[in-house]
Amino acid sequence: MKFMKLGSRPDTFFTTEAVRSVSSEILSDLIVQVKGSKYLLHKFPLFSKCLRLQRVCFESPEKSCQHQIVQLPDFPCGIEDFELCAKFCYGITITLSAHNIVSVRCAAEYLQMTEDIEKGNLISKLEVFLNSCVLLGWRDSIVTLQSTRSFPLWCEDIGITSRCIEAIASKVLAHPFKMNLSRTYSRRGGRDDVSCNGSESLRHSKPLPKDWWAEDLAELSIDLYWRTMIAIKSGGRVPANLIGDALRIYASRWLPNISKYANHSNSDLIGKHRLLLESIISLLPAERGAASCSFLLKLLKAANILKASSSSKAELARRVGLQLEEATVVDLLIPCVSKASDTIYDVDIVMTILEQFMLQGQSPPTSPPRIKRDFERRRRSRSAENIDLEFQESRRSSSASHSSKLKVAKLVDGYLQRISREEKLPLSKFISIAEAIPEFSRLDHNDLYRAIDIYLKGHPGLNKNERKRLCRKLDCKKLSMEVCMHAAQNELLPLRVVVQVLFFEQARATMSGAHVTELPSNIKALLANHDESSKISASFTDVKMTPADDQWSASGKLSTLKMKLTEDLDENYVDRNGRSSTLKASCVFPTRPKRMFSKLWSSNRSVASEKN
């Protein structure tokens, strides 16, 4: 850190009975009262350099014997700063550095120690030191900018704040190898104390990370940080991802453990953190991927807890939607603090994120654009090359979009498994989340089935129609063999889904040429119409599906399946003449499944005869 010394006389100030005086052969004739302290000084050295003291003294009628009394009730700085200014007037040596230059500069401005009253006055010397020494160093610029918080109005009028911000921004925009080490890195070793007129020792150059400046700027208050980052962004030289990393470092510094404010009663503290959060959001670069999806979702969680503005939440949701494929299930578990909702997690904001994802995920056309015939005739060969290049680029873009949808589909199904445990999660919200992703994005429906099964177990009060709505998105053709075995014995599923699972699983076995020698007992019971009291017992030890909340049952009761089957097959269909017909109810199942069930029944009977 650089420093400057002014004056050559030794310090002769002393304290007697709480009164500060200066040793001199001349009797003091001036009493200055400032910040509750009293100084016995001399008019001539102070009036020759301080225009305000001169004017106040002439306007003040107060006198105490031979002493003129001057009161400074609105002095903006501390008594240490006044004393430094007074010592400068006496020619006593004072030391200035980045730690005290701001306060001394404001005190000198208040006392009007300008060139108008004397050449080479304190203000001019401070300005030279500030511009030629302090603002040239990274550490000194940071310290000086932090010091301006104590005197914001004075520093704004003098221009110290803006000059510090410009100096810091210029250093960040410059090549890092040409700049001094940041304060964080310089703490690790090496002296930095040199005189302003001395030569700074050359440090050994060592590589620095590209965001070497971010940790130092994270110590600034949000108002100064915001202005500094705006200046850095306007320079246009720092990549957007480095800006995002700097914002992440700042947020982790000032917004740790934000969840503890969920039920906090201190509105002032919450308002302070809310302002800080919204300022960080306003600084996010516009480029996609400038901030990680995990960081954006953490900001969104904080926005929910701190009750940030709806515009800030919408902006974060939009940005998350642009890169949703990078998120994890834990990232999407955003706590819901709204009193109007009973759910633990905010499902509505996740739905908004999915909508934003689908809006930006439009795939480009898979076929090359057609061109006009005239242009094709004139430049046939070159146009063919251009079309081929455009087609390849289109295929690459489409492939990337398709890949992101596949990732998001897995993410959504995992998210559904987590939130489906909530007892108060409405069925409509579960279905909305499940249907927000297009059909082609799910290569298999295993995870979706797990989510549905967890929801059914957590909400046993669902009626028949609600269970059908819940399973409407489920495609039995996309279930693995293990999941099909479980679904075939799942008593909570609608009968139609169970029948579809049985059919497609048997069709899959037939197409693969496998010989079915033994069917699961529940399938035998369904096809052979056994007695109601018979129980389904099948071993599923090879099935490796273990939801977090419960182990899936490996058996089901025949009476439940039979009752479901009777309910569906006995539904009367009314024809145009108003007559009911139970015969038409058999049309619920297509001809092909009937044939398949006949084969299964024949196979079952043959197996039974072989055993006999």
Task: Please give a structural write-up.
By secondary structure, the protein is an alpha/beta fold. It is 52% helix and 7% strand. Strands 2-3-5-4-7-6 form a 6-stranded mixed beta sheet, covered by helices on one side. It has a 3-stranded mixed beta sheet with strand order 8-1-9. Strands 10-11 form a two-stranded antiparallel sheet. Helix 3 crosses helix 4 (101-111), helix 8 packs across helix 11 (222-235) and helix 23 runs antiparallel to helix 24 (495-511). The longest helix is centred in the middle third of the chain and has 40 residues, at 380-419. The radius of gyration is 39 Å and the shape is elongated.
The largest pleated sheet is described as:
6 strands, mixed
Distance between the termini: 99 Å
Shape annotation: elongated
Rounded to an integer in angstroms, the radius of gyration calculated over CA atoms is 39 Å
Structural class: alpha/beta
How large is the count of helical segments? 27
Mean pLDDT: 78
Q: How many strand segments?
A: 11
Q: Low-confidence stretches at least 5 residues in length (pLDDT < 50)?
A: 176-183, 185-195, 197-205, 363-387, 393-400, 515-520, 529-562, 569-612
Q: What topology, given as strand order, has the largest sheet?
A: 2-3-5-4-7-6
Strand content: 5-15%
| Helix fraction by DSSP (H/I, runs of at least 4) | 40-55%
